[in-house]
């Protein structure tokens, strides 16, 4: 099993190559490999994958139709390239996010790829506050209804109140970190991380080179 940091490197590399390689076959091959990895190797629920594919279908269909209807040259080919590319990107991202927790990804990036600790713990704090923000969102709407007002998702006043609450939480979090002895730029205890053996670097390089070679030298549709 690939280390989360290595999997992140692989996905970023394949994502960059995917943006420049115009091949329906390679897009489908990459999406199929990710699908097999999720279903057969990591045992992700089929219903979860099906829901992801279903939600993304309107986006893929819109991209496919726009190139088919308004493209200038090779409309069919371009339509299938960009339609299949959306699913390839989706399954690439799902291979990381559905198989690893946020903590695992961030801590392994920090330990193995030297991602700054301030950035890691800042992101971690933001993710941990998502549930509280959701609850605060409901509380603000409920308190407004008591006063005879209704806040809808498109009204800026709702988001202004959420931003004010988030700023207060940010100040409280900074004060709590200072009280616990955290100082900017000083050493921190190292979080636990999964091993990252050298063979994974070679495997990642082989995958990136193989995919790039297939896109450059192959006569794929």
Automatic annotation (TrEMBL):
Key words of the record: Membrane, Transmembrane, Transmembrane helix
Pfam families assigned: CbiQ
A Gene Ontology cellular-component term: plasma membrane
InterPro entries per record: ABC/ECF_trnsptr_transmembrane
Membrane topology designation: Multi-pass membrane protein
TM ranges: 6-39, 46-66, 119-138, 158-178, 199-216
Name of the featured protein: ABC transporter permease
Cellular location(s): Membrane
């Amino acid at each position: 099993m690939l280390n989360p940091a290595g999997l992140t490197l692989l996905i970023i590399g394949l994502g960059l190559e995917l943006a420049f390689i115009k091949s329906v076959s390679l897009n489908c091959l990459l999406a199929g490999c990710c699908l097999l990895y999720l279903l057969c190797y990591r045992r992700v629920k089929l219903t979860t994958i099906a829901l992801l594919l279903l939600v993304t279908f309107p986006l893929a269909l819109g991209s496919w139709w726009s190139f088919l209807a308004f493209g200038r040259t090779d409309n069919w080919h371009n339509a299938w390239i960009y339609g299949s590319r959306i699913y390839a990107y989706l399954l690439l991202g799902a291979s990381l996010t559905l198989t690893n927790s946020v903590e695992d990804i961030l801590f392994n990036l920090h330990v193995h790829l030297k991602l700054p600790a301030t950035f890691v713990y800042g992101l971690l704090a933001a993710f941990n506050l998502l549930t509280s923000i959701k609850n605060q969102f409901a509380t603000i709407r409920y308190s407004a209804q008591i006063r005879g007002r209704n806040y809808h998702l498109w009204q800026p006043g709702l988001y202004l109140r959420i931003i004010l609450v988030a700023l207060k939480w940010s100040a409280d979090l900074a004060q709590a970190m200072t009280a616990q002895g955290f100082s900017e730029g000083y050493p921190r205890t190292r979080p636990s991380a999964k091993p990252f053996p050298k063979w994974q670097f070679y495997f990642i390089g082989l995958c990136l080179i193989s995919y790039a070679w297939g896109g450059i030298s192959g006569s794929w549709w």
